[in-house]
Amino acid sequence: MSDENKPAIIGAAPEGTRDPQSAARAVREMFTSIAPRYDLLNHMLSFSVDRLWWWRAARTFDGILERPETRVLDVCCGTGDMTFALRQRAGGGSAQILGTDFSHAMLQRASSKSVARTGLRWIEADALRLPLPDAQFHLVTAAFGFRNLADYDAGLREIVRVLRPGGECGILDFDEPSGLIGKLYRIYFKRILPTVGTLISGVKGPYAYLPASVERFPAPEEMLERMRRAGFNEATWTPYTFGIAGLYRGKK
Q1: What does the angle CA 5 – CA 181 – CA 61 come to, to the nearest 5 degrees?
Q2: pLDDT tens-digit profile of 90-121?
Q3: Checking phi first, is residue 135 left (phi over 0); if not, alpha (psi -120 to 50) or beta?
Q4: Structural domain spans, the chain
Q5: How confident is the model over 155-174, as pLDDT tens digits?
Q6: Which CATH architecture has domain 17-177+218-251?
Q7: Segments of the chain assigned E as strands
Q8: Could you give the count of Cα atoms lying within 13 Å of 167 in the half-sphere of its Cβ?
Q9: Positive or negative, the Cα torsion across 169, 124, 194, 208?
Q10: What is the pTM of this model?
């Protein structure tokens, strides 16, 4: 089947799901099941490079984070690592930072890690239906969670909705690198990572789903076009670590 005749991908579709609603339920259940070991496995399976990615993405928005009374939203925040990176980059400033996720178990872990950090709030919410007013935030981020949305375009439109005019978004997520690095990456990502992740977490599904979700996610060129259609201009993609991950950036 040619690319022109392939059905358009709406969003994440874990094995066995039939529609966006069942896909969303499956994603929530998967992340809830691995919440107790999520941080340990993230750092171990990425050799702690994930910490560098969060820090680098947050640093990109220093100019926004340093402004007085900046309002920041981190969607699909999981256990809060990107949210904490944003708080650290904001320093002692007055930035108000809100993290949202639709997995209660993940938010519980984020909240337990944030005791010593001020200026953070957490809300349990679906990124496709945020219980937030229009045009409220100067910056919206998503780190390794946007890929799991059941509808990518709806997710982008929701980010545009809650951003103020001139506000920016940053979506940090995986990609599939090319060349020799890509071949080695696929061996690790599709064979070794699922085995190790399943062994340590005791849960099979999520770590088999991870490489499939990356393979399904739009390539950078397509993702940038989707961002432009949703209402972003100046849409860019900056690859990190040989293109294994990267930052999508856009302005409303």
Answers
A1: 85
A2: 987 789 999 999 999 999 999 988 766 667 99
A3: left
A4: 17-177+218-251
A5: 999 999 999 999 999 999 99
A6: 3-Layer(aba) Sandwich (3.40)
A7: 71-75, 96-101, 120-124, 137-143, 163-174, 233-240, 245-251
A8: 21
A9: negative
A10: 0.92
